[in-house]
């Protein structure tokens, strides 16, 4: 086995290159001694020797290099350090370099083909020992420097990972849609309780005003039904969308109501609870407006195409807009129907046609036989819209409008058979609408889209030719088979006659 020659030690203060004095052949037979020596500076200093230590110039450079290492990339600073301190090798004589992260190995190999990177247990034992005796081995550092650098880099690295982005901050969308769904359930439950509770006093009101929010507001205004007079008509009408007929009906029914009388203490409790229902309903309205604004900022094209609520649910279910943009259209189509999918695969039944997308108006407008087809087409357009939203620098609704138009035309095509818009024309129109297209680029885009259409049409023609050939071959085989069967029957009919003639002779 080839020996371990050098070690790369990444520290918050800088990069260090160590030369291994005891080769891997010796170490592999006594790895326990390496682990024991990690805690003993006298023994460990005989196993490794510091070649070079290159400290970072500041916290910004340390953070930049830490980000590169976490992604398995070789920065220019690290490249220069390795180039200066590692001896030149060749294809025959290679250098073995120990690294802590195995993902960093292939990147180093790209710049230094003669370097083989190892990240096995022995390397980790060495690096552990260097980490323990770092202050003694890296002589330029003072006591406490490493701890302070690690703390500062740890905070900066964590801050950079969760930094706030105005354009791509979809965490608030995920929380808002979850809260919106919870509020809908709570408002229904609480409103039902208000109706049941106040129904003992004024049972007819629930049938006259079925809306939960308006019912709770009327409960707060009316309280004791005996207090209602004809003068209250305008006030009640204002609470029921200025409908004077309903307001008059409320007053008339209050006079002949079958409900029981209610004490002031009981009414106070009913009113307090009704106030909560009203306040939660009003907060729900404000939250929906907030979600609408947030969706138009983060995912404008997806919002324009499929709506704020369905778009937000897709983002929430996928985990983020980035995750949604990475998923295939077939996955987007059945997001939210995973249980049904796995059950269908297990029982070998029909797989679901849609998940969360079922709530889209496009699915509702399609006929029963076309729901699956429009769902597949809509998922394709949603996938495109989410990718545009995620990777575009400036938010725009141009593509969302054109994609929505395409879905509308596809729905019309299923019903009437009229030819829908081609992708080439759709792309050209969207780019022109967003103002990012000049005449020369328009020609290029159209040419690319036209070539795609030609490829599709040629594939379709080939498929049709193949199907025709298969049908023709199948027909010929059938005819041959029928001829053979006729001939066999004829032979079977002739054979008894021959036998009879022979017997007569």
From TrEMBL:
Main localisation: nucleus
GO molecular-function terms, A-Z: snoRNA binding
Domain named Nop: residues: 298-416
Statement: the UniProt record of this protein carries the keyword Secreted: no
GO CC terms of this entry: box C/D methylation guide snoRNP complex; small-subunit processome
GO annotation (BP), single: snoRNA guided rRNA 2'-O-methylation
Pfam families reported in the protein's UniProt record: Nop, NOP5NT
Annotated segments matching region Disordered: 438-505
Keywords linked to the UniProt accession: Nucleus, Ribonucleoprotein, Ribosome biogenesis
Keyword flag Nucleus: yes
Function statement: Required for 60S ribosomal subunit synthesis.
Name the record gives this protein: Nucleolar protein 56
Species per Swiss-Prot/TrEMBL record: Debaryomyces hansenii (strain ATCC 36239 / CBS 767 / BCRC 21394 / JCM 1990 / NBRC 0083 / IGC 2968)
